[in-house]
Design brief:
- It is found in: Plastid, Chloroplast.
- Keywords: GTP-binding, Hydrolase, Nucleotide-binding.
- This is p-loop containing nucleoside triphosphate hydrolase protein.
- InterPro entries: EFG_III/V, EFG_V-like, P-loop_NTPase, Ribosomal_Su5_D2-typ_SF, Ribsml_uS5_D2-typ_fold_subgr, Small_GTP-bd, T_Tr_GTP-bd_dom, Transl_B-barrel_sf.
- This protein is of the alpha+beta class.
- The chain has 6 domains: about 10-75 and about 90-195 and about 215-270, P-loop containing nucleotide triphosphate hydrolases (Rossmann fold); about 445-500 and about 510-600, Translation factors (Elongation Factor Tu (Ef-tu), domain 3, Beta Barrel); about 610-685, Elongation Factor G (Translational Gtpase), domain 3 (Alpha-Beta Plaits, 2-Layer Sandwich), CATH 3.30.70.870; about 695-840 and about 860-975, Ribosomal Protein S5, domain 2, CATH 3.30.230.10; about 980-1055, Alpha-Beta Plaits (2-Layer Sandwich), CATH 3.30.70; about 1065-1125, no CATH class.
- About 35% of the residues lie in helices and about 20% in strands.
- It contains 34 helices and 37 strands.
- The protein has a 9-stranded mixed β-sheet. Strands 26, 27, 28, 29, 30, 31, 32 and 33 form an 8-stranded mixed β-sheet that branches.
- A hairpin with a 5-residue loop joins strand 35 and strand 36.
- Helix 23 packs across helix 24 (about 790-800).
- The longest helix is centred in the first third of the chain and has 37 residues, at about 165-205.
- It is elongated and about 115 Å long.
- The two termini are about 60 Å apart.
- The protein binds guanosine-5'-triphosphate and magnesium ion.
- Guanosine-5'-triphosphate binds near residues 23, 47, 104 and 158.
Length: about 1150
């Protein structure tokens, strides 16, 4: 069986990637057809690799599938000698493992995993649409995986039939398309280099990842042959070198291919010279290359590429269309109707209407066929179509003569066979597995470095080096260590697997689904029925918990079927069965326990955008569902399955389509029991909570203080249930809160303010630009920094006092005043607790202190100190104010000591808890700065030693954390609450007709159009817009319905987080507002007045989470409530 696999130098691994619908699967069809797996008639329309029903129904690819193809490679110089005797003996068999990947963003992880295991990629670009959103992404990704690309410009036929361009116009367009692809690649390389330089600067070491070859590989040059012009639908394609060779071979141009290819894609034409008599027969074709200049004389002169590359194709299209129209079949391939769709000639002959070689129009075809065919010379004469008889034969044999498209397909795929040029180019341009492992992709195929982990274990080192060397050289020998990398798992039906000696899994007998791993063998030979070590992506070197798998079975990938093989040598792809129970999404398998996992590309993974809660309708099915979910998350790397504390099972997917497909798969494939009924919740949208500034007064610390002393009505959220039921809320006002440690043994005072994302970045060490300094100044004023202090020093003070920053834009700092001890107070207490007034009256209590000198309440021990501390904390702001610097007594010094040693450490936990769930709807808090302003500790004298104090009652870290959490939450509630929304970036194409319905739909969903530009040469607009995630559901079907298909389905990816600038608790109060917005609507929320988007979201989230939504709502008929449906 091993003869199936050729040695690595005869093997190539490539993946096809592109934007959605640019023709990847159609291209794959053509390549598969050349192997005789599908018939010629089906190539281009069958979409063989879209093997699932759903993929065929929707017409898009959802899962990457692989197939191994055999090809006979003919060296390109075989045809360059003019002697026609060069035989096919110089052609050698090669194997190309081809992976077809999906184009839709929702399935982008499938692309990532395909790229991971290949060495080359076929980058397909639609000649009409050009580079699209997804193309840019795959280019970046393919580059990160260090692949060598070949550009395939597909659908070139559309330039002729749809856009009706002349060959010259088409040539110019193709040239500018290549330029635009090159520009995009160059821009990408530049930005990657800059980033790498930056990384190097930060890490202070050289990584040397981008080599010179990189920019070489990523420059597409028609002359070099890494650009193929193709029409996958009609099965033709050619590259400039292949055209040059055939023009020379067929004696159309008397210039050696090596020279000719340099001119062929430039502004040149060939000037025939009048033959000079004698040897006119053989050398009639002399002439010279001329630079094309527009003069009167040669204004009709086409550039070489247009004349020899495109013109014959254009003529074939036109000729066949004319013939079809003539004989009564009608033609509809030209969009401008130049060939009438109805018959011009009334077919009187009875019987079948068919196109014959003699039908008028076909003479034009025949003539064109004689020029510029790129049929390999080794091809048999049966494929020859340059004579009338053969033309007729081909049409009869392929049974294509009754349809215009079929005739075109059968002729064109012989005239310039697509599969040939693509497979030859793959062999010539993409690296072999050996070369890839050695030079091209050393980083992508690198196994983890063992250095730090096994420095002192020399015998491991030796084994490890042996494995490394074997991988680097793609060693296929029998004694080389066997190592393979499983880049993804996939599900297959048992019926697809051709395995005579199948091992039946005791547990899985009912299941018709088999999970297979797609693996690339890196060194040695994998053998069916042997056992191997399986290492997950986070495997540590020398980890004793290594999994020894049960005997694996290996399969050859044949698209929709899998054929058992005995062994697979290095350099090939295969499917592996019996790995599913290891439950890793990627794995390294090896016969030695030291074959370390390959380095992953974790940063490539997209953020899942759509989450739902899945539960089985029949509780008895829960176990089945759980097993199904495990399989689903294994087989699809992009699906995240999590369980919440409440027992919900959350499935997160990349997009709506991905979700729909995953749920279908879950029901039909992964759940062993057929017909499991599932209940899927509404999509779960993530929000964030944050706060806004009160008003300009707050931006000035003095103003803030004076405002605090005034009696102002509390914010609405503090008066309406359920928000006012937050613990500790009575001690908070205007973003300041004093939180009592349980048992009243201490209290922390804090203030929360909005934190601009730019300042957050600066705190983490990012750059400070002008906008950022403005923001810092603004924050500085609000915190009471002197007016003349500059941004830099404010930032420094903040950065010095930062206790912690989290991942969602929040930070906690201890004010300088607190750090210095000015606002730390020890309260000597006889009752073992600090004094707690009933309600915090910030301004009032400070004044009353001055008025009656605290005598009125002097009966409570420690009250005076408490009031003093309060004033200190309140008035000092962030900085310590020298003038007001309080004398620190020994009690305070003891408190400060206790703060530093016992309390500070547990703050981070409290801060994180508070940030994980905000007070409004328990969503994560974003962009908030917490400032610890002051601290009080109830102290007792320690009798054992003089002047020594200890905490009145024991203080634990948990108590501190809880107090901080409560404090932050109630301080946040006492500030204007805002929601933070996730925004998506969406790109789509629309015709002008579609705009009319597109804009209103986007507007209604609060979308913002960022850019709309014409796509060159088409009447399509490329539109990019931002859209709040919460409003994105069902957008594609709505657009489709309203615009009657004039607008394409949008591509959506995560863009950024942004504050929803709407006060969720706002109601019209003034007369003017009431006039503008109306009275409180009776249909609205009774507790909060008007319909309000932000509030609407908040209520939805609270409802979903089972939080109290509206405690004023009374249930009238409680016994009628159903609890089944949430
Ligand atoms: N005119 C023309 N149409 C083509 C050509 N190649 C593909 N198409 C059409 O383009 C459509 C999409 O083709 P697919 O091969 O499914 O595209 P894909 O890139 O695999 O799409 P996804 O897998 O969904 O990303 C089909 O309707 C094809 O018939 C071509 O060369 N010329
Ligand atoms: Mg496809």
């Amino acid at each position: 069986m091993s003869s199936v696999f050729l040695p690595p130098d005869k093997t190539r691994l490539v993946t096809i990637c592109a934007h959605v619908d640019h023709g990847k699967t159609t291209l794959a069809d053509n390549l598969i057809e050349s192997n005789g797996i599908i018939s010629e008639r089906h190539a281009g329309t069958l979409r063989y690799l879209d093997s699932t029903e759903e993929e065929q129904r929707r017409g898009i690819t959802m899962r990457a599938s692989a197939i191994g193809l055999r090809h006979r490679y003919t060296p390109s110089n075989a045809g360059s000698s003019s002697s026609s005797s060069s035989s096919s003996s110089s052609s050698s068999p090669i194997i190309v493992h081809l992976l077809d990947s999906p184009g839709h963003t929702d399935f982008s992880t499938e692309v990532s995993s395909s790229l991971q295991c290949c060495d080359g990629c076929l980058l397909v670009v639609d000649a009409v649409e050009g580079m699209c959103a997804r193309t840019h992404q795959v280019v970046r990704e393919a580059h990160s995986h260090q692949l060598v690309p070949i550009l395939i410009i597909n659908k070139v036929d559309r330039l002729c039939t749809d856009l009706c361009l002349t060959p010259t116009e088409a040539y110019i367009r193709l040239r500018s398309l290549i330029e635009s692809v090159n520009a995009a690649c160059a821009a990408m390389l530049v930005s990657k280099r800059a980033k790498r330089r930056e990384d190097e600067r930060v890490l202070n070491k050289k990584s040397g990842l981008l080599s010179k070859g990189d920019s070489n590989n990523w420059t597409f040059d028609a002359q070099r042959g890494n650009v193929v012009f193709a029409s996958a639908l009609f099965g033709w394609g050619f590259s400039v070198p292949s055209l040059a060779r055939s023009l020379f071979r067929n004696k159309i141009l008397p210039i050696k291919p090596i020279m000719l290819k340099q001119y062929l894609f430039g502004d040149f034409y060939f000037k025939q010279q009048p033959s000079n008599g004698s040897n006119s027969n053989t050398d009639s074709n002399t002439g010279k290359m001329m630079k094309l200049k527009v003069t009167v004389e040669n204004q009709n002169q086409l550039p070489l590429f247009a004349e020899y590359g495109l013109q014959p194709l254009w003529e074939i299209y036109e000729g066949v269309a004319a013939a079809a129209a003539y004989c009564g079949l009608g033609s509809n391939i030209f969009s401008d109707g130049r060939i009438p769709a109805t018959a011009t000639f009334n077919n009187k002959s009875k019987g079948k209407i068919e196109i014959k070689a003699t039908t008028p129009g076909m003479d034009q075809v025949l003539q064109a066929m004689q020029a510029g065919s790129t049929m390999p010379e080794s091809a048999t004469s049966a494929a020859d179509i340059t004579s009338l008889d053969n033309l007729q034969q081909v049409m009869t044999r392929t049974g294509s003569s009754t349809s215009e498209e079929a005739v075109l397909r059968s002729l064109l795929r012989r005239y310039r066979p697509l599969s040939d040029i693509v497979l030859n180019s793959v062999y010539e341009i993409c690296p072999s597995p050996i070369q890839a492992a050695e030079d091209v992709r050393p980083r992508a195929l690198a196994i983890m470095d063992s250095k730090e982990r096994c420095a002192d274990e020399n015998n491991y080192e030796e084994e490890f080096t042996r494995i490394k060397v074997a991988i680097r050289s793609c060693d296929v020998s029998n004694d080389a260590p066997a190592v393979a990398y499983v880049c993804k798992f996939m599900a297959a039906d048992r019926s697809q697997i051709r395995d005579p000696g199948r091992i039946d899994d005791e547990n899985d007998e009912t299941s018709s689904t088999v999970i297979l791993g797609l693996a690339r063998v890196l060194s040695g030979r994998l053998k069916t029925s042997s056992t191997y070590h399986v290492m997950g992506p986070k495997h540590k070197f020398n980890d004793p918990n290594i999994i020894r798998s049960r005997p694996i079975r290996l399969f050859l990938l044949m698209g929709s079927s899998f054929v058992l093989v005995d062994e697979v040598p290095a350099g090939h792809l295969c499917a592996i069965q019996n790995l599913e129970d290891v439950q890793y999404k990627t794995a390294t398998i090896s016969d030695s326990p030291y074959g370390m996992p390959l380095l992953g590309f974790a940063d490539m993974i997209q953020r899942p955008l759509v989450k739902v809660n899945v539960e089985a309708i029949d509780p008895a099915d829960t176990y089945t569902l759980e097993r199904g979910l495990v399989k689903l998350s294994l087989a699809d790397a992009a699906v995240e399955v999590t369980a919440t504390a409440k027992g919900e099972r959350i499935v997160a997917c990349l997009g709506e389509l991905h979700l729909e497909q995953s749920i279908l798969d879950l029901q039909n494939i992964y759940c062993d029991k057929k017909g499991v009924q599932l209940r899927i919740s509404e999509p779960i949208v993530e929000f964030g909570e944050t706060t806004a500034w009160f008003d300009d007064n707050e931006l000035d610390f003095e103003g803030f203080l004076s405002e605090s002393r005034k009696q102002v009505p509390p914010l609405r959220q503090l008066t309406i249930p359920p928000y006012n039921e937050e613990e500790g809320i009575e001690f908070s006002q205007r973003g300041r809160a004093r939180s009592i440690v349980s048992g009243r043994v201490g209290a922390v005072s804090m203030r929360v303010v909005p934190l601009d994302p730019m300042i957050y970045e600066a705190l983490k060490g990012g750059d400070v630009d002008e906008d950022c300094s403005d923001a810092i100044n603004k924050l500085g004023r609000a915190l009471g920094f002197p007016k003349d202090q500059n941004a830099e020093s404010i930032l420094k003070v903040l950065a010095d006092t930062v206790i912690s920053v989290d991942d969602s834009g929040n930070a906690i700092v201890a004010s300088s005043a607190l750090e210095s001890g000015t606002t730390v107070a020890g309260v000597l207490s006889e009752k073992d607790e600090i004094y707690v007034p009933n309600k915090l009256e910030l301004g009032a209590s400070a004044q009353s202190l001055e008025e009656d000198n605290g005598e009125s309440k002097n009966d409570v021990c420690g009250l005076l100190e408490y009031e003093m501390v309060q004033r200190q904390i309140r008035d000092n702001g962030f900085l310590l104010n020298d003038a007001e610097k309080r004398k620190i007594t020994s009690v305070d010094a003891a408190a400060l000591e206790i703060w530093r040693s016992q309390m500070k450490g547990s703050l981070i936990a409290g801060f994180q808890m508070a940030m994980r769930a905000g007070p409004i709807c328990e969503e994560p808090v974003r962009s908030v700065l917490v400032i610890l302003e002051g601290l009080e500790v109830a102290l007792k004298e320690d009798k054992r030693s003089e002047n020594e104090f200890k905490t009145a009652s024991p203080l634990s870290g948990g108590m501190m954390a809880a107090a901080l959490r409560i404090g932050i939450r109630s301080a946040l509630l006492s500030r204007p609450a805002r929601l933070v929304e996730c925004h998506l970036k969406l790109t789509l194409n629309s015709s002008f007709a579609g705009l009319g319905s597109l804009y209103p739909v986007l507007f209604k969903r609060r979308g913002k159009v960022l850019e709309d530009s014409m796509v060159d040469g088409t009447d399509l607009l490329l539109i990019s817009a931002n859209l709040p995630h919460a409003e994105s559901f069902g957008l594609a079907p709505e657009l489709f319905r309203l615009s009657s298909g004039e607008v394409t389905a949008p591509e959506m990816i995560f863009s950024h987080w942004d504050i929803l600038e709407q006060d969720p608790f706002w109601i019209p109060t003034s007369l003017e507002e009431r006039e503008d917005f109306g009275e409180i609507q009776s249909s609205g929320d009774v507790s909060t007045g008007m319909d309000n988007t932000a509030l609407h979201y908040i209520r939805k989230v609270r409802e979903r989470k089972g939080l109290l939504v509206d405690s004023s709502r009374t249930v009238i008929a409680a016994e009628k409530q159903r609890t089944i449906k949430r």
